[in-house]
Amino acid sequence: MKGILAVNHFLNTKKYNELHNALLSSAEKEGIELEIKTNLALSTERADCDFVLFWDKDINLAGRLEKEGIPVFNSAASIGKCDDKAKTYIELLGKVPQPETIIAPKTYFKADFSEFAERAVERLGLPVVFKECFGSFGEQVFLCSSVEEVLEHVTEKPFILQKFIKESSGRDKRLEVVGGTVVAAMERINENDFRSNITNGGAMRPCVATEHEIRIATEACRTLGLHFGGVDILYGGLVCEVNSNAHIINIMKCTDIDIAALIFNEIRQSLQKGNV
Questions:
Q1: Which residues does 187 contact at the CB level (< 8 Å), separation at least 6?
Q2: 49-104 pLDDT, tens digit each
Q3: What is the CA 267 to chain-centroid distance, rounded?
Q4: Which residues, 6+ apart, have CB-to-CB distance to 38 below 8 Å?
Q5: What's the pTM value of the predicted model, to 2 decimals?
Q6: Which residues 6+ apart lie within 8 Å of 145 measured at CB?
Q7: DSSP SS3 for 16
């Protein structure tokens, strides 16, 4: 079986290279011929492969590959729903519990959001979590203690405001789901930041997920159409975010579980069943 690992041409750092090399190594062990191609290279050529493992967020490219008849994991639609935090929230409404969230109204340029911020804070309380809709590793996420602080982070980029879950400050669980099953779980703890991300200084340790956490993690991935994904769950059992192409190196090191091999097994089974 021949596949392409699609990665972003402009994210060429040690962290990303470590992930890409781990995926290549795992594919080789699984008897899969996997070749790295960047989104820049694929933008000007046709893909010759049985599938694409799409470890990027260039959904226009992923959509084009699908139109050309190539199975893409995860799909362009699923990646798009996970990449945009507002879309993730909407898709999961009524499916799994989430922190109360208010989506900022659309604007075409930097505008005065003071009236919106005041109304949102009145409903959500303070402090309130500000999140740009697009971002990874806890970047562009801020804990705001006033309306004025919210407004300091507003740009022309779309954003959401979320109720701050105090009991989960600096703590959450990452559950990795593959093929509808939770295959690994770790707890992330940051004593110096309300964000638990390892990139922001958080520590990690393997943990046992509760039945409730397993149910909502698998339901979130099913709802979003993911063959595999990382689900962040706050204490109290609320889904915080869902990652369509999560950086799996940390959880693999933490739990000693080869998630990459499980992903390739899911891809192989899906292709055999025509479940793409």
A1: 171, 172, 173, 204, 205, 206, 207
A2: 999 999 999 999 999 999 999 999 999 999 999 999 999 999 999 999 999 999 99
A3: 19
A4: 6, 7, 8, 9
A5: 0.95
A6: 126, 127
A7: helix
Beta strands per DSSP E along 85-201: 101-103, 128-132, 141-144, 159-163, 171-178, 181-189
Cα distance between residue 70 and residue 267, in whole Å: 13
159-163 and 171-178 beta bridge pairing: unpaired
d(CA 245, CA 35): 17
Report the candidate in 23, 26, 24, 69 with the shortest Cα–Cα distance to residue 46.
Answer: 69
DSSP state of 114: H
The mean pLDDT of 136-147, rounded to a whole number, is 91
Closest-CA residue to 89 (of 74, 101, 106, 79): 101
Q: Any residues with CB less than 8 A from the CB of 156 and at least 6 apart, and which?
A: 107, 108, 109, 110, 111
Ramachandran area for residue 111 (φ above 0: left; ψ -120 to 50: alpha; else beta):
beta
- Amino acid in the structure at residue 162: Q
Among positive and negative, which fits the CA dihedral 80, 82, 88, 91? Answer: positive
**Length in residues, the chain:** 276
Look up residue 177 and give its two tokens: 């789901």
Q: What is the CA radius of gyration of the chain?
A: 19
By the 10 Å C-beta count (0-12 exposed, 13-18 middle, 19+ buried), 44 is classed as exposed
Q: Rounded distance, CA 122 to CA 128, Å?
A: 10
Measured CA to CA, the distance from residue 15 to residue 130 in angstroms comes to: 26
